[in-house]
Specification:
The chain has ten helices and 20 strands. By secondary structure, the protein is of the alpha/beta class. Helix 1 runs parallel beside helix 7. The longest helix has 28 residues. It binds flavin-adenine dinucleotide (FAD). Flavin-adenine dinucleotide binds next to helix 1, strand 14 and strand 18.
Length: 412
């Protein structure tokens, strides 16, 4: 088949890899230039530890409290936007124990599947992702946060994940190069991390070498549809015939889906990161500073620090008032790393494609015979990339899928 994929983010590239491996002719269309999208500046975690969906009990009350502070890790820009209102209501309806109990096992299944596939892929591509299986530390200063993390660690055990609870001395022993100032932590040994830029470059090179055609600076604007089949993808540079279409357009998924008559809800959740180069002393493990919702990732001698979730529509504006607390938190937890406050030019921003129930959309269009959706991975798009690519390939080839996929269906 001639398969067209919209989006050259991590989801588009891994999907192209699995499809091309089966011999399909694959073309990826992206309006960017292949050097930046959400898949480049993220924290690079492969995190089975994130098995609780974003919409979970307590998050709404916490979010409302955070909304009152200009330096908190969460913000919604108030605006009259029907998609945001519908998304918010759905998110609110999903943030309860019953829905989480229903969705968490599905999220866990795809996280575990994808972790193993990402490790295989990194190995196959000569360790090009710089993937490391060192686990991840969830660190906290606040006692209440510690109780919550201990609860999650107990829950994780049900899924076969070991997550020992550490006191401050035990955390310090795991990070001998830097001083750590915490009350305690939980160590998820199952988690991995990689270098997102190296991963994207390696995937790009691999699929190009395999014969995947990538059309950058082509914006998909519309489609020709005949008898419930998309026949042509219409871009600003011309039309492309296709036998099958995969939409992997990240935070633009809702807009493109609408053009196809597919109704799904999605909000871009902006996050920031800053990458510090050539550190003499660095963290050994990635660390999440749970009280402040900040992620720190050692990538060789580099250190990336990131965080915040701003629901403010599609834009790449950088709000330094919300960047500063990220760096301050890193310096507070690790008092001798002395990270400088960056100039605005050094700050990266990216848009997480967030569904209102915390599960991705992976499934065939209910309205077409030849369209598959792959997106809405929110905070776990790197973690779920390989699993998504494999599942999309299996759906297109009408094979039995590796795991049950009904929970990820598109119009749920
Ligand atoms: C600060 C931060 C930290 C994160 N940390 C992690 C982490 O540690 N682990 C993890 O698993 N995830 C993490 N994430 C989330 C992860 O980065 C995303 O889930 C993932 O990158 C989404 O990939 P994607 O391919 O769906 O979208 P993208 O990477 O955004 O790619 C979508 C592509 O679609 C293209 N496109 C859109 N519309 C069109 C159009 N009309 N025509 C042509 N092309 C189009 C865009 O140009 C873009 O290149 C983080 C995100 C942020 C912001």
């Amino acid at each position: 088949m001639q398969i067209t994929i919209i989006g050259a983010g991590v989801i588009g590239l891994t999907t192209a890899y699995y499809l091309r491996k089966e011999g399909h002719e694959v073309t990826i269309i992206d309006r960017g230039n292949g050097t930046n999208n959400c898949s480049f500046g993220n924290a690079g975690y492969i995190s089975p530890s994130h098995f609780i969906p974003l919409a979970s009990p307590g998050i709404v009350a916490q979010g409302l409290k955070w909304m009152l502070s200009s330096t908190s890790p969460f913000y919604i820009k108030p605006r009259l936007n029907s998609s945001l209102v519908k998304w918010g209501l759905k998110f609110y309806a999903n943030a309860n124990e019953k829905t989480v109990a229903r969705n968490a096992p599905h999220l866990n299944n795809i996280l575990q599947l994808s972790r193993n596939l990402m490790i295989d892929l990194d190995r196959e591509l000569n360790h090009g992702f710089q993937l490391e299986t060192k686990g991840c530390l969830m660190l906290y200063k606040n006692e209440k946060t510690g109780h919550h993390e201990a609860e999650l660690a107990r829950e994780a055990k049900k899924y076969g994940m070991e997550a020992p609870i550490l006191n401050a001395t035990e955390v310090q022993a795991m990070e001998p190069e830097v001083k750590v100032d915490v009350l305690g932590g939980v160590y998820f040994a199952v988690d991995c991390h990689l270098h997102p830029v190296r991963m994207m470059e390696t995937l790009h090179k691999k699929v190009s070498d395999m014969g995947v055609k990538i059309l950058y600076q082509h914006e998909v604007q519309d489609f020709e549809i005949k008898n419930q089949k998309v026949t042509d993808v219409i871009t600003d540079k011309g039309r492309y015939l296709t036998d099958h279409l995969v939409v992997a357009a990240g935070s633009w998924l809702e807009i493109i889906s609408k053009k196809l008559g597919i109704n799904l809800l999605l909000q871009p959740g902006k996050g920031y990161s800053v990458t510090y180069g050539s550190r003499q002393k660095n963290l050994i493990h990635p660390a999440i500073l749970v009280d402040d919702r900040v992620a720190m990732t050692p990538m060789g001698s580099e250190l990336r620090v990131g965080g915040t979730m701003e629901l403010c529509g599609i834009n790449d504006d950088i709000n330094m008032t919300r960047v500063k607390p990220i760096i301050t938190a890193a310096n507070n937890y690790f008092p001798d790393i002395h990270l400088d406050m960056p100039q605005v030019e050094k700050v990266w921003s990216g848009l997480r494609p967030c569904s209102p129930d915390g599960l991705p959309y992976i499934g065939n269009s209910p309205h077409h015979q030849n369209v598959t959706i792959a997106g809405g991975h929110a905070m776990v798009g790197i973690s779920l990339a390989a699993g998504t690519g494999l599942l999309v390939k299996q759906m297109i080839q009408k094979e039995k899928t590796e795991i049950a996929v009904d929970a990820f269906r598109v119009e749920r």
